[in-house]
Design brief:
mainly alpha; about 140 residues; 4 helices
């Protein structure tokens, strides 16, 4: 899992450091939710590819849908954890419903951007490989 888990772990560490330096709002929290969504999508996508070597490789569409769905599930569980933390321990992580929905939306956008970029990069790599085979170089 080292090939996949480094991304979300890095986002957690950077978030903690940046939040201590600059506070959570107005910039650190939104950026970290975006990066977190991208990192979780990357993690799930890589885990599917790695696991596919042992269990059978799912199609590209299945991996995209799984990465998107699980990223949103992780974001939702994270927001529930913040809610419980606020209620049980008196933290003030969630400032409003708007803040919570914004966090969920930004995490979703991070996943979409990662998955879109991965698709584009894979298409470019496939095109280059077809050109290489065609020209014999």
């Amino acid at each position: 899992m080292r090939e996949a888990a480094w991304a979300p772990a890095s986002v957690l560490v950077v978030h903690e450091v940046a939040a201590r330096m600059f506070k959570h709002e107005p910039y650190v929290d939104p950026v970290m939710h975006f990066l977190g969504g991208s990192a979780i999508a990357f993690f799930v996508y890589r885990a599917c590819r790695i696991g596919g070597k042992f269990l059978g490789a799912p199609s590209r569409l299945v991996m995209d849908l799984l990465a998107f769905g699980l990223t949103n599930s992780v974001a939702l569980v994270w927001e529930f954890a913040e809610f419980l933390s606020d209620r049980l321990w008196g933290t003030h992580t969630q400032t409003s419903v708007l803040n919570t929905v914004r966090d969920l939306f930004i995490g979703m956008m991070g996943a979409i951007v990662y998955l879109g970029a991965a698709r584009v990069l894979a298409s470019v790599a496939a095109w280059r490989e077809s050109q290489r085979r065609r020209t014999g170089t």
